[in-house]
Write a structure and sequence with these properties.
Layout: H1 10-13, H2 17-20, E1 30-34, H3 40-47, E2 53-58, E3 74-77, E4 92-98, H4 107-115, E5 118-129, H5 134-142, H6 164-170, E6 176-184, H7 194-201, H8 207-210, E7 213-220
């Protein structure tokens, strides 16, 4: 069954403003996005004059989306795990990966492969869900339930699950240096919740249980 066909259109079309705001201030940069969906993030980057060239990699064509928008310089319809992208090495200044690595059979190899496409000094900006989030703990250990859903931490299309330590390990390769790894406690666009207040009051002791996902910035050295 194609579980991606069950997804709401917002799953493919919402621009990742949380990742866009981390882009280096360089209007001449070249940006590659893995899992570009309908292309909305790439279009937004171009509209904001944050890159000279934007390229997307997506597994499938999405009718009625921004994939054919002229602001996108190139869209590659391909499976990243087959390593047949025909993209130049040491070419991109930024590689964006928003909630994609957990969908891959071998995300470790995908990161190693994509790092070859990144210029020296270029950066990965990546978000990955945190399976240690307290609601996952409640469902698994207290309810004894690992039922898959259409979206969220237990998305049917997730093949891999990560805690903070494991996310860091994804980027622990000789060519990369992790610049930052930031805990995100709310769904994109939501206002700060009690989790943010509680995390601050407890000096982040419970942060790994309150982080819905982590955003990693890793530089190629």
């Amino acid at each position: 069954m194609n579980f991606y066909a069950e997804k709401n259109t917002n799953y493919f079309s919402t621009p990742r403003l949380d990742l866009i705001k981390l882009l280096p201030a360089n209007p001449n940069s070249k940006v590659l996005e893995l899992g570009s969906g309908g292309g909305d993030t790439l279009v937004e980057i171009k509209k904001r004059n944050l890159a000279k060239e934007v390229v997307g990699i997506e597994l499938m064509k999405i009718p009625g989306s921004n994939q054919s928008n002229p602001l996108i310089d190139r869209l590659v319809i391909a499976d990243i795990e087959k390593r047949d992208l025909q993209l130049p090495e040491a070419y991109f200044d930024v590689i964006l990966i928003g909630d994609v690595l957990e969908h891959l059979a071998d995300p470790w190899e995908a990161v190693a492969y994509l790092s070859q496409l990144l210029k020296k000094g270029g950066v990965f900006i990546v978000s990955v869900p945190n399976i240690r989030f307290y609601t996952a703990f409640y469902r698994i250990y207290l309810k004894g339930d690992f039922a898959y859903k259409k979206e969220g931490l237990f998305d049917k299309t997730h093949l891999r699950f990560f805690c903070k330590k494991n996310i860091e390990e994804l980027f622990t390769i000789p060519s990369l240096h992790i610049e930052s790894i930031t805990a995100i406690e709310t769904v994109r666009g939501d206002k700060p919740s009690f989790k943010s207040v509680f995390n601050a009051l407890t000096f982040k002791i419970f942060e790994q249980f309150l982080a819905l996902q982590y955003i990693v910035v890793a530089k190629k050295i």
